[in-house]
Amino acid sequence: MRTNGFQKPYNNLQITTWALFPLFLTGFFLLVPFSLPCSLAIPLSILFSLLVVGSIYYGHLACSIDPIDRHLSTHLYVNNGKGRTKGGPGRNFCWVCQVHCDKSSKHCRFCEKCVDGFDHHCQWLNTCVGRKNYEAFFRAVKLIFGWLFVEVLCFVLVLVGWYVEVEAEAGGDSSFMNVRTNVESSSIPQGKVFVCLVYLWLGVSGLTWLSVVQLLLFHMNLRREGITTYEYIVRDGKRKREAEELEKKKKAEAKAEAKAKAENGGQHELVSQEDPGTNFHVEDARAEAEAENERRAEAEDAEAEAEAEAEDAMEKGEEMSTTTKNGKHDLVAQEEEEEEAKAEVEVEVNTVESMDTEGENLELKSIQVRVTPQNEAVL
Fold first, then answer.
1. Spatial separation of the C-alpha atoms in residues 375 and 369, rounded to whole Å
2. d(Cα 53, Cα 38) in Å, to the nearest integer?
3. Which of 157, 191, 320, 344 has the most CB atoms around it within 10 Å of its CB?
4. Whether residue 148 has pLDDT greater than 70
């Protein structure tokens, strides 16, 4: 368990802080006091030094204060880690520390302890920021913002004085800042080397100052709302999840509505997808829907025409079949009539035997029947 920010293990951002801080100091005291006139260099250097000293003090204070939870501190340092703590209203049990802590306390996995009024774990200081050391941390941020602003301002004044003096010498006038003259009369790098160093330190200081501005504004907003960084992160995560769920719900509703319109043959609007990488304008969607409806109507008309042609062809085929059958029947009947007209049917009855009941002799008769074409029988 780490009790302050100066204990190992150190992290990369903490080492970066220790490297940048002397770099900023070196750049300021190397380039500013010897280039600006004394009327500006002395008060700005004093202001810069005071702000730096204040930031060092409060930064050290924030790192050295142990923000441990009071119940955990009592359990470890008073009771020597023996026994069990008692729960109660406004207290939560930490399964890692095995202690009942205040509800506002959270366990920090970097420091391996529960922090009273947990705000966040500062990677630049490599320590937890809680209720006990938050004020020191906030004051350190404000003072760092102050001396970085003074440093950036001084570098800007140096560059302005340098270029103004160059133009003044070209026009035969004198400059009130005399930056170039001061640089040439000092032991610091001369000419373009000096200007390049000023630009380099101005860039590094300016970017760092912008980051500190963002951090300061963020914590000022947290103090105005009366919440911690941890509570802000939890709230922001909840809002993002709710927004994502609402967006998914809207997309699902829009998709269902578009599907219903498509099934009913109506026009529908295409909506953009998250993964999706294409977005259609409403007018293009409507034009596409109209074109789709026209294609469907044309397809239906073509299908209806094809069905009508098929029915006409079937009717014509039946009429031809009926006509052919009737023609064949008439032809057969005509041939039969011609054959009947030409032919004569003779029916001969060769013998007819008849016997009366009384046993008379048989009488043999020959009957010839002739059928004329007019179907009249002649006996």
1. 12
2. 22
3. 157
4. yes
